[in-house]
Amino acid sequence: MASAMLLPGAATLGVMGGGQLGRMFVHAAQSLGFRTVVLDPDADSPAGLVAHEHVQSDYLDPAGLARLSAVCDAITTEFENVPATALTQLAASRAVAPAGSAVAVCQDRADEKAHFKASGVACAPHAVIRSAAELAFVPDSLLPGILKTARMGYDGKGQIRVRDAAELAAGFAALKGVPCVLEQMLPLQLELSVIVARGADGAIVNFPVQQNLHRDGILAVTEVPAPAVSAELQAEAVASAGRIAASMGYVGVLCVEFFLLQDGRLVVNEMAPRPHNSGHYTMNGCDVSQFELQVRAMAGLPLPQPRLHSPTLMLNLLGDLWFDAAGQERTPVWDQVLALPGTHLHLYGKQSARPGRKMGHLNITAASAEAARDVAQRAARLLGLPASW
Ligand code: ATP
Ligand code: MG
């Protein structure tokens, strides 16, 4: 169902999924005066704990979906692996953004790459491998490469680096023969991402380009303005992200990840149909956050062009920080970190820390990029994170 404009203070917004992205969506919606509902199977989900109502059910449970559509005026999602069919079902009676069809494209790396091509945006040379028989047809030029499951990958999970045909066959078997995409291993200079928001009327706005550093396949640091990306390349990334959104009639917040290759070419990696970890800096560095734009887009409210008001760095806070060298659980030295100027701590309210688990993030804003980086490095040292990047 198409959305009429939902005015702040007078409507209820729902979100499929109760993780940290859902929690920050709920906070943004509540600060605009909306009622909020979260659907998530977990009794302790970060977003369910802070919403007005938590529908505790499976994503495909008809009773849960019926409750969500009964109480919400509009519904969104906080993760791309929510069953697209559930979104399509909800859309029969309620405004849903992004659409199930758009989320479905983002769920499958093969479809996603076909969409990039159709949008005129270059991605990594690749082959889709749906069965062991197809291994024989993979061109040598794609090796060495990265074999990725077509579906359900995140934080580098479901990926195997392969050097030759024998490793490729072994890797495909190790991934249990599920449909995969083999991508050529590209010589990366750095990684960046762009977040755009598109309204039902087709208007598109964007946040500035983020430069991202990953460690062990997980985002570690985001820096804005991107220190090593030229203005021309930034404009190209923003234009490409806009085309990718527009060519699927997308409504909502979309993050597009890019690689900058050593030869200076820009190549799209993947996209997420929602706010993104690399956009968390917008909560403190911009005059409107990615979560507020998600709220505005689904409510049919105006989408102003966001403005970066302070150079900002984001440090991801993984569960590893909650353990000392001897493996004993500890509380990170928040008091010392918060004594540094321009530090903004966001913890997701997760009940227990595990290595690699996203527990929160720290945004550092300052009057200059140099000052933000200096404080971020001091904070990293206090927390026991690598302090040079
Ligand atoms: P997430 O959803 O957390 O962003 P993911 O599991 O979907 O991650 P990708 O973004 O596909 O995984 O890859 C994870 C990281 O692996 C990339 O950020 C990049 O550092 C590296 N990588 C992926 N594909 C390639 C490639 N073709 N060439 C070189 N490096 C790559
Ligand atoms: Mg990625």
Give the SSE layout.
Blueprint: E1 12-16, H1 20-31, E2 35-39, E3 53-55, H2 62-71, E4 74-77, H3 84-90, E5 95-96, H4 100-107, H5 109-118, E6 126-129, E7 145-149, E8 159-162, H6 165-174, E9 180-184, E10 188-198, E11 204-206, E12 210-215, E13 218-224, H7 231-246, E14 252-261, E15 266-272, H8 282-285, H9 290-299, E16 312-318, H10 334-338, E17 343-347, E18 358-365, H11 369-383
Parallel strand pairs: 1-2, 1-4, 2-3, 4-5
Antiparallel strand pairs: 6-9, 7-8, 7-9, 10-11, 10-12, 10-14, 12-13, 13-16, 14-15, 16-18, 17-18
Helix pairs in contact: 1-9, 3-4, 4-5
The site of magnesium ion has 3 residues, from strand 15.
Q: Which CATH-level-2 architecture of the largest domain?
A: 2-Layer Sandwich
C-alpha end-to-end distance: 47 Å
CATH fold node name of the largest domain = D-amino Acid Aminotransferase, Chain A, domain 1
Biggest β-sheet strands, sense, barrel: 9 strands, antiparallel
| Unreliable sequence segments | none
Averaged pLDDT: 96
- Secondary-structure element order, as H and E? EHEEHEHEHHEEEHEEEEEHEEHHEHEEH
Percentage of residues in helical conformation: 25-40%
Name the overall outline.
globular
Name the CATH superfamily assignment of the largest domain. Answer: ATP-grasp fold, B domain
Subunit structure: Homodimer.
Family: Belongs to the PurK/PurT family.
Protein name: N5-carboxyaminoimidazole ribonucleotide synthase
Organism: Roseateles aquae
